[in-house]
Fold these 3 entries.
Entry 1:
Amino acid sequence: MSQKLNWIKEFDKPLAIAGPCSAESEKQMMEIAEQLNKDYVQVFRAGIWKPRTKPNCFEGVGAIGLNWLKKVKDEFGFKIATEVANASHVKLALEYDVDYLWIGARSTVNPFTVQEIAEALRDTKKVVLVKNPVNPDLELWMGAIERLQQQNIQNLGAIHRGFSTYKKTKYRNNPQWQIALDFMNKMPEIPMVCDPSHICGNREGIFDVSQQAYNFEYDGLMIESHHQPDEAWSDAKQQITPDRLLEILRKIELRKSDDEDAFYHSKINHLRNEIDETDQGILETIAQRMKIASQIGELKKEHNVAVFQPDRWKQIKDNSVQQGEKLGLSEEFIDKLVRAIHQESISHQNQIMNKENSN
Ligand code: PEP
Ligand code: MN
């Protein structure tokens, strides 16, 4: 935590950004701000300009909504946040003294857009948050942060909102946690906020995804909340009431990065030694498998038989999935594992096939 940028340290609880997907009316904004618990929520969010997938949908109320955001700040004391997608949004947001500006997932994919926003924000002391791009590209996400850093913008943060997939999974946007964890390893000073609303696309999964984020020691959450979620003009299915939000924020358990307790340390060291030994065993077993695969490769070469045998591959996979199931390992995991091992065997055998005969 100590290496994180200072702006995140001003909060004694983890950062919670909440508020509607979109500003709809002054009444709606005031109603929601009134209902959000000020002890748990520090920043009020609302989209003013909305990037919609299809035309002819509600595309945000536009600049008039900034008056309502400002009113929320003045009357309820929240910091306020909105999405900016071009230089004129930035100019208006700064005029209305918006405290946190975020770059949306559809903008992060476009270096021209990010550059334009970065230049418009040059030298700002405002907090600027960058959502992950819609596609799973770590470099693009980090590149956006670097463009902002190059314009001397220092109060930066990242928002993990998941990644689009063609095939729909249980998530609207697949979290692919590893990408955000890699981001945190490569840019440890940048605070990481999770957006479970856009990851889940529904209300039911929000607690679990939020808890998962805190298990990974994220610095905060951005959760869409609306006083009448079913009536919301955008993202109705994923918005939750301020009451439900409070329940979630109270229930989440925070994890520490370590514990001073001596018993904990001796126990975890012992278990880690066991893990190291087990890993060693796994690698030795895989190396042994590759040796056998190479012998098979020699045999195939002698008999001029093709390296890849689809029936045999299917048999290996089906057996492994069946055995894995008995051992409590998921089909998805076994599929990835066996595929990786099989590909390595195939590449060993290909090397043998392509080797010039030495005699
Ligand atoms: C939003 O936060 O309302 C939004 C449009 O998010 P994203 O850019 O993650 O789709
Ligand atoms: Mn939304």
Note: The chain is about 50% helix and 10% strand.
Entry 2:
Amino acid sequence: MKILYIASEALPFISTGGLADVIGSLPASVRRAAGEDTDVRVVIPFFPAIKQKADDSFELVSHGEVTLAWRHLYCGIWKTVRDGVTFYFIDNEYYFDRPFLYGAYDDGERFAFFGRAVLHLIEETGFVPDVVHANDWQSAPAVIYLKKSEYSAVKVLFTIHNIEYQGKYDMAILGDVFGLSDADRQTVEYDGCINLLKGAVTLADKVSTVSERYASEILTEYYSSGLYHVLRASRDKLTGITNGIDVAYYDPANDPEIVKNYSADTLGDKKENKRELQRICGFEENDAPLMVMVSRLASHKGFDLVKRVLYDVLRETDITFAILGTGEAELEEFFRTAASDFPGRVAVRLEYNKALSKKFYAGADMFLMPSKSEPCGLSQMIASRYGTVPIVRETGGLFDTIKPYNEFTGEGNGFSFTNYNAHDMMAVIKYALGIYRDTEKWEKLTRRVMGVDFSWNASAEKYVGLYNSML
Ligand code: GLC
């Protein structure tokens, strides 16, 4: 089988979020699951940060031109091989040499170009995949162009990692920017706009989301960001497969970024990482419970709840709290203020920093993730791997991966609450703090949390099954 993954980011090359984790680890896992004769390739844009780190293994495949509406655009193709998987990089400095990945006024045009470039890649390399696995709206133009091309028989799985981002544009630029004609209008039109995600969902042979729960949630008005009509119409081809994580990369026993390696058998050594994180945060080095968040500062991550009760939790308990992440200015401001209102108890690091995030995962006691919606969520699994007990809201992948602790039976691998309600969250945090004080129970829970298998193994098998079912 020949599989081509299309996405906008992939580890270890570039990452702004969970998508990069998935594209960096799923393809190799699929290759292991399907057999080494499976030809697995990935294509992403050649962003400047990737170029800067490119080593000697990167080679130029071709350089030429692609056409997008009336534009003739330079298109370089580079490649390197990692773990048996070929990674291609689409080069065009006009579109991709920017200090950020997304958020430009011309994102639609940038990823339309990327979509054209993917077809060009297929032609240049002669690599005609059996299955294209496209991810999120940035890959939607590629799906639309592919399904209109001579390669329309290629099967497409389109995965929604987050339905809130759809790639919506004014209908007026359908021809001029996307090079689509009036005949394509119906495919991409939603609510009077161009909606790229809708176009890809409509044309794909199968659609998936990154957890089972989220696949059912997006059929509802509350979770679908306006698209539930479209998804209900595509219901028969919709499934959910829960993400795994790269358990070799996220391994407290071998992680070079943390001060002291440890495993479930040497749990005592986790404490040294806690001391290190307390130093980083400017906290006293003591046994006060340390709860962290590592998150994009976006409202759907549950910050309404945190804003509502953080001060109360700090006043009523001995908890310490640290957050790592960047995002909305208003949230950054809230946490800066909290840090100055509670010196020695609240710390903020407003940055996206993978190395530092490992110190947060390893050093904390509890990991808070009260998302309003969460397609899958990887942080709760990463935290678990480092023996940091997740406290989550029961939504999407959080619901599928974290089962609430039952102190009487010892079952469960975290703490959870159902409704998007600040005081429900506060009650659960306080309950977790109570368990934390019972050292014996807490240690048992921590070991249990660390023991859950969040590797890709089971999910890679499911993807292989899904790919086969399409052929
Ligand atoms: C998006 C989702 C997140 C998911 C990730 C990888 O970032 O918001 O829930 O884990 O994609 O699929």
Note: The mean pLDDT is 97.
Entry 3:
Amino acid sequence: MATLRIRGGAPLYGHVSVGGSKNSALAILAAAALADGVCILENIPKHTDILVMCRVLKDLGVDVWIDEKGRFHVDGSTLSNDQPSYEYARKIRASIYAAGLLLARLGRAEVPLPGGCAIGSRGVDFHIKGFQQLGAQVGIEHGYIKASSTGLVGTKIYVNRASVGTTINLMLAACMASGTTILENAAKEPEVVDLAIFLNSMGAKIRGAGTDIIKIQGVKRLHPVEYSIISDRLEAGTFMIAVGACGGEVTLHNIVPEHLRTPIAKLKEAGVQVEVGDSELFVRSFQRPHSVDVETAVYPGFPTDLQQPWVAMMTIADGTSVVKETIFSDRFRYVDELRRMGADIKLEQESAIVRGVERLTGAPVEVSDLRAGAALVIAALAADGETHVSGAEILNRGYERIDQKLVSLGANIVADDSLPQPWEAFSELMRPARVQMEL
Ligand code: EPU
């Protein structure tokens, strides 16, 4: 396990550039393989979950490589295998997008049940029901989702709980189905909208993304395109909350402020100053945060992925706050680790009751999942003394070496050598331009 040694107490100052959206990139990498040629994708972050998704696609026969400018090339014309390996598929939730992709391209799929962060039960029933409604035969056998169809047919589908992953998977499956598919109660997350814009640029006919009704008129083929994905609202939110917890003045660049409306409103309530530019946010705080209640919700509500960082900030707020998790059944595992640092948190059903303390104290803690890791880093930055955060490699699943970005803002963090640099981890996909010419 890799460890971050964090000495707390330093406010954050400076500028930080936010990377591409992990959850958008995961969907768009799968969608790119729907085309019968090479899509070129920019702004794909070098997160380990992205690397695993590329390996899942390569398992299917899709050629994926990175050029010297850092752009990802995805060649779906070589897709031939309907079964990604268990080894990679079990590591990430987004591997389930292989099912939508394969049904659309080959009419059959054998996809291992996906993995992902340990944040509670993460069923696949909504995905399966949706594929069945499109006319596929689908079942779970020996740990695999087995699906086949002689041609998907558009229909009206109600998406349970406005599930993000289900909406994405059904968009992948339906965009080349015959007839029109209508997704009711569809997810409205910016990542869904980004996927729709990408698919439409490839020739798909999708209307309504960003509302709860998405209409997908099937087309015969999708052509390859070049595309740049949106920036990561969750990375931006993590940095904003870090400033709220530690104090300081930070400008965030390359962001879409509209994607962060609710977190911005909540931060302002907590006494953090936020100024919004076109693609920048200026965040400033020199006081202990006020306690503010939060309830997670589907977009545009407060994102569940910022619940953990928010609780970290509330541990040192000037009062008691109630943070309610409504999306995932077990996203409070990190609370015991925060308690090691002196946090006063009581769990009651789906809520954390956080009584703010004057200060946290450094302690050894361990990361249980991606956003829990972000919460522990924020708590450590705000604490007195040194915190050893072990399991830090989990942070690389969804942040591009967050420790280095924080160090550039003045944080005192030393990472052990076992934590790879983003580019090192992706070296297996790097292909120089010369080789590309020869191919
Ligand atoms: N659910 C089911 N059955 C299903 C699908 C979902 O019961 O077939 C439940 C889930 O267990 C959960 C709820 O429905 O309780 C909503 O889950 P959703 O499908 O919306 O989530 P997801 O697609 O699995 C994506 C993100 C998560 C993010 C959620 C909610 C990706 C790869 N993951 O997950 O991101 O928290 O949407 O916005 O896009 C993260 O980035 O740290 C992360 C966990």
Note: The chain has two domains: 3-19+231-420, 22-229.
